[in-house]
Amino acid sequence: YSVPGSMIVDNLTVGVGNITYDAGGDFDFGSITVPGSDINLIAGGNVNIDSSVTADNINIDASNISLGSISGSGNIDLVAGGVDFADVDAGGSLFISAGSVSGGFAGGGDITIVSGSFVTANSLTSTNDISVAAGNIDLNNLTSGNALSLSAQNISVDDVTSGGSVTADASAGDASFGTVDAANDITLTTTGTSSLDSAISGGNTSI
């Protein structure tokens, strides 16, 4: 389904099949309900969704993406100039590629976030790997079932818990952490100042 302009719907419900829409302008939805199928949205403008909790895979490509409470039993892929979210949860992988990323809580099997500018969020929780690459990283709590990798010019993180190894590279500045608890190795590389409240590793610790 294609519209040349924008689509604004308070509550969108589809009884059968996927939602596959594209718009020259914006998509603005209060809620989206599908029967365990996919949501695919491409917008020349912005995409705003307050809530959607019944989808399998969710794929959104837009100038900017703003999400409230969103979950999918499969994969969630978000590509935009800017992504803002309150609570996003993927049963499979969560992939975000944006100029800037700002959010509350995000969960997934694997979490991959790539940003040319900044990434800030309250909590990232993954049953497997977490990988975040950005200009600057400012995060509160990170929990991964396996490896956790951070790469940015400057890194600021409160607490990290990893079932694998933790690797952080601050390529043009400082890196600061609260407690870092890793089942395997902890490797922290900076060009500036490194600081940790505490480091607990089941392997080697290199700072």
At a glance:
The protein is 0% helix and 72% strand.
Characterize the largest beta sheet: strand count, sense, and whether it forms a barrel: 20 strands, parallel
Q: Give the termini distance in whole angstroms.
A: 53 Å
Helix content: under 10%
Instruction: Extract low-pLDDT stretches.
Output: none
Kindly name the structural category: mainly beta
What's the β-strand tally?
A: 20
Mean pLDDT: 97
SSE order and pairing:
Layout: E1 2-3, E2 7-13, E3 19-23, E4 27-33, E5 39-43, E6 46-55, E7 58-72, E8 76-90, E9 94-108, E10 111-115, E11 118-126, E12 130-133, E13 136-144, E14 148-152, E15 154-162, E16 166-170, E17 175-182, E18 186-190, E19 194-201, E20 205-206
Explain the overall architecture.
With 207 residues, the chain is an all-beta fold. It is built from no helices and 20 strands. 33% of the residues are buried.
Give me some keywords for this one.
20-stranded parallel β-sheet, 20 strands, 207 residues
